[in-house]
Amino acid sequence: MSLAHDTSPRPPLDLHRHDWTREEVRALFALPFPELIFRAAAVHRENFDPAEVQISTLLSIKTGGCPEDCAYCPQSAKFDTGVKAEKLMELDAVLTEARAAKEGGASRFCMGAAWRSPKDRDLDKVCAMVEGVKALGMETCVTLGMLTGEQARRLKDCGLDYYNHNLDTSPEYYGEIITTRTFQDRLDTLEYVRNAGIHVCCGGIVGMGEGLDDRVGMIATLASLPVHPESVPINLLVQVEGTPLAGQAMLDAFDFVRTIAVARICMPASVVRLSAGREDMSEETQALCFIAGANSIFYGPKLLTTPNPGRDRDMALLDKLGLRPMT
Ligand code: SF4
Known about the structure:
This protein is an alpha/beta fold. The protein is built from eleven helices and twelve strands. The protein has helices at residues 22-29, 33-47, 91-103, 120-135, 149-157, 174-177, 183-195, 212-223, 253-266, 283-291, 311-321, and strands at residues 52-62, 108-113, 139-143, 162-164, 199-201, 204-206, 231-236, 271-274, 296-298, 302-303, 306-307, 324-325. Strands 1, 2, 3, 4, 5, 6, 7, 8, 9 and 12 form a ten-stranded parallel β-sheet that branches. Strands 10-11 form a two-stranded antiparallel sheet. Strand 6 (204-206), helix 8 (212-223) and strand 7 (231-236) form a beta-alpha-beta unit. Helix 1 packs across helix 8 (212-223) and helix 2 crosses helix 9. The termini are far apart. The structure holds iron/sulfur cluster (SF4).
């Protein structure tokens, strides 16, 4: 039976399901595109004001020289991408960037460090950054690699709001992308962060040569975590020369929008972030993503080391679409 002509009443959506099966998630991906977008938009409206977009700014506080081998990442020391290894930024410089982000309209300031895991002496400096950014009246997020339970508690004690640690892809495809740590390592860090009482920011990347089943597996895994990540970044691979994933076939834009829509349906109360990959994305595709339930963007001309649309361009797009920053 064609779902396009299915007029039977729909079961009410359970807003807090954590038992999404792959079959169910696959069935969502298989819906006719307009039906999928309609359902995702309905879920979005039940949980958020669809005219509001949460705005985050991301700063690389420690760039390059990372010992991990994430195949998409220009900051890995294993690939020759022209990104130079730098030291951890000084506190004052970070706070200057945070003030500028706030003046530009960002409500959350995210700080990323290219580490496998932070050393304790580095964590002291990051904690000072978190405290300084919070004192400006912004939410804070950091991404520092793998954490121990003790490190997660230290970050909570200094007031951190969010910790970003992406699953990246499905458990099955993960080994094609990263060999220096396991999928289980990722789940462990997420557990430490959750147990410490820090909000979780966790999503993945599409367009890395994965198949539909991997996008299904990634969303099903995210939506089956004990608590849905409060923030779910969905990234479109930014291909960087020198990384193993440079030269991948581009993901079809509709497949990207479908991923956003399915994430919205499976994690109804999470903020779904239209993340990396917007620089080369048409305004129309971005608008479709907002209609499909994306309600957050990274704002500012750079995402760690890769380009992102300029602030003026983003504000013009939000204006055109009648969207406004989430307060
Ligand atoms: S994604 Fe993070 S952990 Fe992986 S190589 Fe890049 S900086 Fe290192």
